[in-house]
Amino acid sequence: MIKKIKNISLFSIMILLVATFISGCSNKDSKEKNITISKTDNYKIKVGYYNCDHMVSAPIADAAGIYKELGIDAEVIGNAKVPQAMLAGQMDVGYIGIDNVIKSVDNKVPMIIGADNHIGGSYYLVVSNDIKDPKDLIGQPLGIGSNPEKSSGWVEFARELGIPVEGKNYEAIDFASDKDAYLAFKTGKIKGFIACDPWGSMAEYEKTGKILITSSKLEGQWGDCCVLSINKDFAEKHPELAKKVALAHTKAMEFVYLNPLKTAKIFAKTYMVPEEVGLLTVYKKTVKEGRTLSWKIVPEQIKHELSWKQENGYVPNTVTYEELVDSKFIDESGADDFDKFIKEKVDPVFPVGMSYDEWKTKAKKLGK
Fold first, then answer.
1. What's the DSSP call for residue 350?
2. Is the residue at 14 inside a domain?
3. Is the domain of 203 the same as that of 227?
4. What pTM, to 2 d.p., does this model score?
5. What's the total number of domains in the chain?
6. For residues 329 and 231, is the Cβ–Cβ distance under 8 A?
7. 3-state secondary structure of 27
8. Has residue 7 been placed in a domain?
9. Of 191, 214, 237, which one is at a domain's C-terminal end?
10. Whose CB among 57, 184, 199, 281 lies 3.0–4.6 Å from 189's, allowing a Cys bridge?
11. Residue 39 forms part of a structural domain
12. Residue 338, CA distances (Å) to 35, 208, 326 in order
């Protein structure tokens, strides 16, 4: 009996030591990474994203173990119909183009912008190699949607290129996805299409075409392309989880900026493209086109995007900035300051202006 009690005591001590060791490691890691670990709800978060490079933070947070590290039980759903799913209460957090968020809020979908995601760029008009002049596109089959006049991206491109906006001047075609458009392009059925990456980089990699023009600033000022949206009902029931998912979003972006090789591998696997295409995509997003991935909410940028689209009739003019944005989740999450992070950790290693070859060589040398 005495022997049995001794064994139980010894076992208890061992458990205590192991728990203390694990706790100590966790606290140490948390301090090093400036992450606040606290007890979380027993709830599985559904996170949705489109299959577009702008939304890369979602698969990175999942595959790199960031959700798990923060104690978040997340189901990450790619190529999701995010606004519809959030409207139906089937999704808690979603990466969405800002147009759809504005329209959803106008339709009383209970969502808010919880953090920024992508300020612009990395959206392309891809054309076949035999297109020498933008006017060569007139009359051609193009993947620009059957009502391109309603596409702010196409309208920006057409105006800048000096070609007609109206769809009647082209054989304007709808595709279910950018991937479908690329396959039609690759097989010669269309002469061009608009899409985000990986499809612009895929055309360059496979030499099936070229990027004719890239979306950038709106009349000289950055706007807001897409955001991290949070379902208000979910946030009200699980405010700590809402903060944690905002924090995970920022940690995923930090991973992308600091670990381009690892990011490219995850991206290639997730989007089912060659790793070189993943590298081209990451380079464009984090160096070539500037620091376009950002979690920092800049009211002036969002208001600029909102007013421009309202003035041009792309979104309802009834929605206000105050209805769209609630920054408390990112503000209270313990996230790093974006500008400080870029200045101290990214600029010294991967400065804007690096060539692709320089960037790739350095990333490989660092093993990141």
1. S
2. no
3. no
4. 0.86
5. 2
6. no
7. helix
8. no
9. 214
10. 184
11. no
12. 15, 37, 18
Read off the pLDDT of residues 180-199 as tens digits, 9 standing for 90 and up: 999 999 999 999 999 999 99
Per-residue tokens: 367: 């093993």
Q: At what angle do helices 199-206 and 275-283 cross, to 10 degrees?
A: 120
Residue for token pair 């996805």? 177
Domain that holds residue 147: 123-214
- Among 163, 186, 214, which residue terminates a domain? 214
Token digits of residue 245: 């998912």
CA atoms within 13 A on the CB side of 202: 21
Same domain for 133 and 202, yes or no, is yes
- In-domain check, residue 100: yes
* φ, ψ at 201 (rounded to 5°): -70, -30
107 vs 8: which has the higher pLDDT: 107
* CA terminus-to-terminus distance, the chain: 57
The pLDDT value given to residue 39: 52
Sequence-ordered list of residues with C-beta below 8 angstroms from that of 308, at least 6 positions apart, any chain = 218, 219, 223
Taking 70 as the threshold, does the pLDDT of residue 27 lie above it? no
Over residues 65-78, the mean pLDDT reads: 95
pLDDT at res. 216: 82
